[in-house]
Amino acid sequence: MIGTIIGAIAGFVGGGAVSYFLWDKALKAKKTRLIAEAEAEGEVIKKEKMLQAKEKYLQLKSEHEKFTNERNQKVIVLENKLKQRETAANQQRSELMRDIKNFETEKHEVELIRENLNSQMELIEQKNEELEKIHRLQLDKLEQISGLSSEEAKAQMVESLKEEAKTEAMSYINEIMEEAKLTASKEAKKVVVKTIQRVATETAIENAVTIFHIENDEMKGRIIGREGRNIRALEAATGVEIIVDDTPEAIVLSAFDPVRREVARLALHQLVTDGRIHPARIEEVVQKVQKQVEEEVIETGKRTAIDLGVHGLHPELIRLIGKMKYRSSYGQNLLQHSREVANLCAIMAAELGLNPKKAKRAGLLHDIGKVPDDEPEMPHAVFGMKLAEKYKEKPEICNAIGSHHDEVEMQTLLAPIVQVCDAISGARPGARREVVESYIKRLKDLEDLALSYPGVMKTYAIQAGRELRVIVGSEKINDQESEQLSYDIAKRIQDEMTYPGQVKITVIRETRAVSYAK
Q1: Rg of the Cα trace of the chain?
Q2: Rounded Cα distance, 256 and 293, in Å
Q3: Which residues have a Cβ under 8 Å from the Cβ of 146 and sit 6 or more positions away?
Q4: Distance of alpha carbon 255 from alpha carbon 331, whole angstroms
Q5: What is the pLDDT of residues 347-392, one digit of tens each?
Q6: Are the CB atoms for 333 and 204 separated by under 8 Å?
Q7: Per-residue pLDDT at 510
Q8: Under a CB-based contact definition with an 8 Å cutoff, are residues 482 and 472 in contact?
Q9: Which one of 43, 94, 357, 425 is separated from 75 by 20 to 30 angstroms, measured CA to CA?
Q10: Chain CA centroid to CA 503, Å
């Protein structure tokens, strides 16, 4: 049994030794192979790294060469610039030296000329002294011959020269005025006549009262109301005086504000049509009518601007234009007048080669200072200019508005066009009515102004104040003085008086010989 076990162990050990030997041998072979593979892989990596290093070296070398070449090029360019500057500096230096030499030469010539001039001046002074002596001797001889001193002779000569110069000046002025009349006046008349011929508008009559017609006189009692309550309420609400008299089927509305009269007229019309007339109803209707009138004012302003082709106006300016419908001046409706002036300005600007749109805009807005919501203490032209400036109108438009009555200096050609067209619209026959008292006073002032001159015997204002006839004494004023007198009177009327259109001054000098046959 023991022997068997020992034999088995011996066989196991012998077999394990053989296995171990074989495993060790295989392991060494594997080790050798791995080492060989690692060496081979190392060689490959080494070669790759060598190639990469070589490529990096070549790249750095090319970049260095490129940088070096660029720097060399910059150095060459700088050298060229330095050479050019050096060449330019040398040229400037040579030119400067040449200029210095020329200056010295010219300086020397100037010195010679100066010396020559000084010598000539000395000779001239000597000659002047000799002339002064000769002149004094001649004056002494003349004083001895004439018996007058030099001052007296000079005074007589000055007086004669004054008279001669005055006579020649008046004839020269007359020649210039005649020539101007043949040229400028002819062209100006042509432009004005063409403008007037191309425009025609309606005229209106200025009123301070409005007549309201009713169907029968019974309605008067209802309008007055019990103890006058209705009429007092209506007057308080509208600010209009309501006159109920014996005029059949008519009530008079009196107020200087046309807008208030229109509100009162429309309110009365609605009250009479409705039939309900009492204080509460009157206040309600008046408020409603006031809103309607305000809307109509704005609508009128918009329609006027559209009709005339004037765009971009501020809403407040449009409202003021619409308000012109209810304002009149000297019997002329302000809105119709402004429309007429706008059309006249556009046509005249076109005739003169200017911008007709700007002229039409200035003509439409020239009287907005007459319809303010408050009452400023300044001329309407200046106030209108301030309103236009406030609502961002262009400076030439504002200047044309402010200067159309000469309160502001004219700065553009639009200003005289607006002034002339305003005069055309206001001064043409039938455009305005003038109060009789002021008309008579203007005629009397014209005659008194001419009578204040010496030598004037009689004066007559004719043709509705458009012509002034001045009769002078033939023994007191000669023909030349009569021309001067007509000029002086015209200048004084222009400076001191206000009048529409123009005034012609005619001076009449005549000699009458009277005898009687007996």
Answers
A1: 55
A2: 17
A3: 153
A4: 16
A5: 988 888 888 888 999 998 888 888 877 767 788 888 889 888 888 8
A6: yes
A7: 77
A8: yes
A9: 94
A10: 32
Top-confidence residue, 72 or 327: 72
Strands 328-329 and 332-333: antiparallel
Are 328 and 258 a contacting pair, CB within 8 Å?
yes
| Alpha carbon distance 501, 434 (integer Å) | 14
Neighbours of 437 (CB within 10 A): 8
Residue 429 is classified by DSSP as: T
- Residue carrying structure tokens 């070398």: 61
| Residues 6 or more apart whose Cβ sits within 8 Å of residue 340 | 199, 201, 425
Alpha helices in 202-278, H assignment, sequence order:
218-224, 229-238, 258-274
Q: Are 341 and 366 in contact (CB under 8 A)?
A: yes
Nearest to 330 by CA among 202, 433, 208, 207: 433
**Spatial separation of the C-alpha atoms in residues 147 and 387, rounded to whole Å:** 74
More confident residue, 48 or 243: 48
Q: What pLDDT is stored for residue 431 in this prediction? A: 46
Measure the CA–CA gap between 40 and 466, rounded to whole angstroms: 132
Sheet with 241-243: list strands edge to edge: 209-213, 250-254, 241-243
pLDDT for res 436: 56
Cα of first residue to Cα of last residue in the chain, in angstroms, is 221
Answer whether residue 473 shows pLDDT above 80.
Answer: yes
Ordered DSSP codes for 124-166: HHHHHHHHHHHHHHHHHHHHHHH---HHHHHHHHHHHHHHHHH
Per-residue pLDDT tens for 225-255?
777 777 788 777 777 777 776 667 777 777 6
User: Where is pLDDT greater, at 61 or 146?
Assistant: 61
Judge contact between 410 and 403, C-beta under 8 A. Answer: yes
243 three-state secondary structure: strand
For residue 416, the number of C-alpha atoms closer than 13 Å in the C-beta half-sphere is 7
- The DSSP string of 465-497 is TTEEEEEEETTT--HHHHHHHHHHHHHHHHHH-
Burial class of residue 490, CB neighbours in 10 A (0-12, 13-18, 19+)? middle
The pTM for the full model equals 0.46
| Residue of 182 and 78 predicted with greater confidence | 78
Helices and strands (H, E) in the chain, number of each type:
15, 8
Question: What are the tens digits of pLDDT across the range 203-217?
Answer: 434 456 677 677 776
pLDDT value at residue 428: 53
Residues 415-421: contacts with CB under 8 Å, at least 24 apart: 417/345, 417/348, 417/349, 417/352, 417/354, 417/359, 417/362, 418/341, 418/345, 418/359, 418/362, 418/363, 418/366, 420/192, 420/348, 421/195, 421/341, 421/344, 421/345, 421/348, 421/363
> Do residues 269 and 258 touch, judged by C-beta distance below 8 A?
no
Calpha distance 342→359 (Å, rounded) = 7
